[in-house]
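note to self — DONT lose this again. spent like an hour looking for the file last time. sequence + predicted structure for the chain T wanted, 105 res
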Amino acid sequence: MVPSLHHVSRPASPPMSPLRRLSALLLGAALAASAMATRGQSTQMPGAATLRDAVAMVERDTGGRILAAETVTTGSTRVYRIKVLTPDGTVRVVQVMGTDADSQS
């Protein structure tokens, strides 16, 4: 004779509150953003005198295609932000520090 197994039912868990759902969603978004940041999506490179020099440097170093380039100035700090599509299909944002050479011309 085989002993019978009794199905033990558990009470249903209460529905998740809206605040708890929002908290879980925000935690997931923060973890996803953190994971993307650690994959090397943004790179910083040494200085260049002009935006054109920075673009040439990024093209040469990555072998990729430039999608966008801009100069960002904060106070006395100049940074060239260059978005590049690498040969493996990854889009990266490379930041190249501006040098003082372009402010002397």
